[in-house]
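Exam revision sheet. Question 4 asks you to relate a sequence to its structure. Input first:
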Amino acid sequence: MPELERLAILAPFGIWPKRNAGAEVVYGPAARLAAAGTEVDIFSLGLRRFERHWPRPFSRELAPRLREHRVLRLRLLLDRVLRGTARVPPLDLSRWLHGAPPSFQRRLRDAQLIQIESPWAIDYARSLNKPLAFVVHNHECDLHQAALGSRGLLQRAQELEARAWRESDVIFVAHEAERQRFEESYGPTAGTQVVLPFGIDLATTQPANAEQRLQARARLGIPQGLTVGLFPGSAHAPNLSAAAFLREQAKQLAEAGVFVLIAGSVSPIEERFEGGLATGPLEELSDGFAAADFGLHPITEGSGMNLKLAQMLGHGLPVLATPFGARGYQARSAEGLRLCELGGFVAAAAEWAQDAALLIELGRAARQHAERQLDWNAISARRREALQSALAGQ
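Answer key, C-alpha cells:
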C-alpha cells in the first residue's frame, strides 16, 4: 500500500487559532497525520470576527509538516457582504480556490490526495483529478435550510452536497444516523463509507482537581459551595436555542441547587442572570470546564456530532443530555452520560446536585469512556488507513 506523503485539506473556515468545534475537527486529525510523517497543507477561507488581518492571502506553519494557507480576496469578501450572504455557507468556495495564489495552487497540485471538509469545494477538488476524501461535519442542507431557502440557494447547495457524497472515494461520517440521513437524501455512494466519531486531545483535555476548580470559579466570579452545571458553546443556532432554554430554567435549577454556567460566544456578552452566568466569548473554555461539576447539553436541533459533549466527558464531567444532543455517542448512564428529554432536565440535575459522591464516580467513568472511545490518536490512525486505501485504489 502506498504511503500518504502529501495531503491537501480544503476547509470553509479558518483553523488557527482553534476557536470552535469545526476548527478542532479539522486540526485534530491533521496534526496527527503530520506527526506520523504526512505533509499536510490546510487551505482555509476568509477571516473570522476576531482576526485582524489585512484581507490578503497568508500562510503559517502550525507544527512540523503542518501548514495553514488562508485564501483571502477583498473583492469576494465585499461581494458576500453586499449580497447579504455573509452568514450563508460559502457555496462559492470553489471560485475562491480557483483564484488562490500560484504558490497555493502548486501545493494543491503536488498533493497525492484531496480532503474536503465541506461539500462546497467539490467542483475545485474534482478539477485537481486526485483521489478525494469527504469529511462530513453536518448534513449542511438540513442545518442551513432556513438561511439557504430564504435566498433561493437551497437547490444549489443540495446539488453540491449530493456530488460530494456520491463522487468522493472515501467518506468519513461521525455516526450511523448521519450516514443513514445522507443515504436518504442523496442515495448510495461509489466510494467507501467510514463511520468514525469526532475525537478530543486527551493530553490537553484533563479533569480539574479540587484546587483548580476553586481557582476557576474565583476567576469567573462563581460563588463557592454551589453545584455548577456547564453548557459550553459557540454562537451556532442549535446552541442559541439550548442556552435560551437554560436561561428559562435557571431559577428552577437554582432552587434545586444548580448554578448554570453558559460559557463561550453562544452569549455575545458577559451577563449574570438569576441562577447563573453567561461568560460571553472566551479565548479558551478551560476555566468553564474546570469550574463545573457536570455538563448540561439540552440540544434539540442541528446536525453532525456535537464535539463539546466529547470535551465535557474528556474533562471528567458527567453530562445530562437530550437523546438528540447525544447522537453519535455510545456512552451509557454508568459511563457518565444520562439521557433526558427537556421536561426532565430540572429533576435530573437536582438528583445529581444532591449526590456529590455520585458525581465524582460518574466523572471518573466519563473520563474512562473518553479514553476508550474518543481519543484523536486512535481515530486518526483509522482515518489514515482509510486514506491510504483510497490512494491505493486510484
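Marking note for examiners. Residues 6-199+376-392 form a domain with the Rossmann fold fold (CATH 3.40.50.2000).
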